[in-house]
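We emphasize that the prediction below concerns an isolated chain of 377 residues; any contacts that depend on oligomerization or on bound cofactors are therefore not represented. The input was used exactly as deposited, without trimming of termini.
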Amino acid sequence: MVAPGLETIVTAEMLALGLAPGASEPGGVSFTARDDQLFAANLHLRTASRVLVRVAEFRATAFHELERLSKGVPWESFVREGGAVRLRVSCHKSRLYHSDGVAERVASGIAKRVKGATVSVAKRDSGADMSDTGRESAGQLFLVRFNRDMCTISADSSGELLHRRGYRQATAKAPLRETLAAGSLLALAWNGTQPLLDPMCGAGTIVIEAALIARRIAPGITRAFACEQWPCIDASGFGGLRDAARSQSLGRAPVAIVASDRDAGAIIAALSNAARAGVANDVEFARHALSAARVPGQAGLLLTNPPYGARVGDRKELRSLYAQLGNFARARLRGWTLAFLSADRALEAQVKLPLAEMVRFRNGGIAVRVVEAKVSA
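Result of the prediction step, given as a token string:
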């Protein structure tokens, strides 16, 4: 699973890992993998939200049929005796449209094959258990999806959503998910070989993800994944894969990564997040207004996530802020690339530079475009 809009980017990531991506659809890209490749996908993909494994697919138009077919699913391959299971059910254009009824029959199938299993029904991905601040309940998650009477059952191999790298415990206003920050950088072809500046850094997610990219640090290096507990997988070699990932990382970012914000609380949050991510020495943080931001000597990329107006900031002040961003670029970023997340074409027009859309997605439910402009030298 991936945020809709980032499918092309995660496909490129998969190819770089030696995976063979198949068909893509909004929110996902399919692929076939060995156990070690499944683990590597969780460990290394910067823009994926979850890595799901297809467990079963069948047609069912009656509850007794669903219950019978559910008993044939190899649940014991993914859940140990006495284990906890969470079901997330969705039904679309199917005769079995009652999600609680579907969950009840599937739970019956699990109970027949996994002794002592406890089954609960999880909320949808947009629910409270999937928020940036909350934590998901324990247990192996299965996604049960009915579409036109076809039932698809997938096991979540990731556990907690992959954007939860573990470092972003302190937040500022309108936080940006780690996967979206990384996706924005990759959409702009930033690979850690040129300086990066974020003069409205908030909690520091963009620059921290940039430091992880620049140092080649696997985004999942400090966390565990659900597939490591699956009975069907021999996870004894996964420690070696983690060690190999650590050995490939650089000791220091090879380029300047500079972050600033006028809000003292944001800088405090960003510093603590960077420390938890292990990149505090790779990012230069300072409290500055936009106009006073330090620009590294070599031309590079400015990427920032300014207020959109939907949640933060007064409209008149925002027009002035976007105009100031354009003035700053023309005055001090000659030869640079200016890029930012935008949810309002009228606001981005205040920048007064020729902007090109690089990628679009939703951030906190708001439709956002990442746009860039090349600033004349």
